Amino acid sequence: MQFVDLKAQYRRLKQEIDARIQTVLEHGQYILGPEVAELEEQLRVRIGARHCITCSSGTDALLLALMAAGIGPGDEVITSPFTFFATGEMISLLGAVPVFVDIDPETYNIAPEKISAVITSRTKAILPISLYGQCADFDAINAIAQNHGLAVIEDAAQSFGATYKGRHSCNLSTIGCTSFFPSKPLGCYGDGGACFTNDDMLARRMMELRNHGQDRRYHHTAIGINGRLDTLQAAVLLAKLAVFDEEIAARQRIAAEYDCLLQDVVRTPVVREGHTSAYAQYTIEVERRNEVENALRLTGIPTAVHYPVPLHLQPAFAAMGLGEGSYPHAERAGMRVLSLPMHPYLDRDQIVRIAQAVHDAVKACSA
Ligand SMILES: *Cc1c(COP(=O)(O)O)cnc(C)c1O
Questions:
Q1: CA 61 to ligand 1 center in whole angstroms
Q2: 23 is in which domain, residue-wise?
Q3: Number of domains forming the structure of the chain
């Protein structure tokens, strides 16, 4: 059994993907070829944003968004410590300071009611993560940001395909950043990402920054990066986009089946009213997580932990001096969360087998 079965998806889409790749090999425009613009247009329309700027990864999407928003040395950016490292990493890479706020223990997203207390004169932006596929509470976050004149950048690496009060993830704030890492809800065959915004000026900046700060060939108006999406990856994404709605529906159906089979034995994901999740992960909470994980591995069921160590306890952030106990909900989640296999091609037999194994493992580990 696979944690994410990319081969099953390829078998389904082989003809379309192979044809799209073949087209690129024949026209030979590997950098910013026509597929990149075609993909950006499709993504833009799907999300409902004025602009989509594809780029080389979700990490670079965050970097480009922060650069375009003018984040630099000494600035403070408010975010959650319960995330993949890249969120805090890109803030620090620009010389800014990540200021952490603990999570809502039910959704694992930043707790909006705790944000105001950490805003200072140096705060420039809020960077909420829409973790596991469910959007953070953007109405509450945007209201705070508006009161203080802050930008809001959504780390939507896990939530492409999710909705919040009828709007799409990636279009809920100043800039939305997503990832096309292979195992994300919409994944390519390598690294890729995208930024979305309704602000013409920010869009232009991000477009130039991803291409060495060029506004036209060999004319550089800013210090940027080489952050373009490969044409070949755009071609793969175009083929996959055709079935994306079906795949999200399949993830949601599978999650509902898991919920039904598991909710009497473990804490299953809480999806708030008005939200739909893209289920990048299906993450439960268990006691004695490592033992449960081992027991599942022995029965051939792969699991993963997203994420065992919150950012404030990572060695790279040790200089911030934030010890254990600083963000109790994030720390507790880090010890308890466990992600089960989740992808659109899980069949009913596999789901039942996984659920049964979770029941057995939880029972064995609490005995
Ligand atoms: C995957 C991920 C990223 C980074 O995306 P890459 O495409 O791997 O660079 C950033 N933030 C979160 C929350 C992620 O899950």
A1: 9
A2: 6-100+109-241
A3: 2
Identify the CATH number of the domain in which residue 356 sits: 3.90.1150.10
Domain finish residue from 241, 272, 295: 241
**Pocket flag, ligand 1, residue 86 (CB < 6 Å):** yes
Same domain, 324 and 255: yes
126 bridge partner residues = 78, 152
Indicate if 304 and 203 belong to the same structural domain: no
Q: Note the pLDDT tens digit of each residue in 5-60.
A: 999 999 999 999 999 999 999 999 999 999 999 999 999 999 999 999 999 999 99
- CATH number of 37's domain: 3.40.640.10
| 367 pLDDT higher than 80 | no
Q: Is 80 exceeded by the pLDDT of residue 337?
A: yes
**CB of 154 closer than 6 angstroms to any ligand 1 atom:** no
Q: Residue 19: its pLDDT value, please? A: 98
Do 62 and 173 belong to one domain?
Answer: yes
pTM above 0.85, yes or no: yes
As a residue count, the chain comes to 367
Task: Report how far apart, in Å, the C-alpha atoms of 238 and of each of 30, 86, 197, 221, 308 are.
Answer: 15, 26, 20, 31, 34
Crossing angle between the packed helical segments 200-209 and 58-68, to the nearest 10 degrees: 120
> Is 229 a pocket residue for ligand 1 (Cβ < 6 Å)?
no
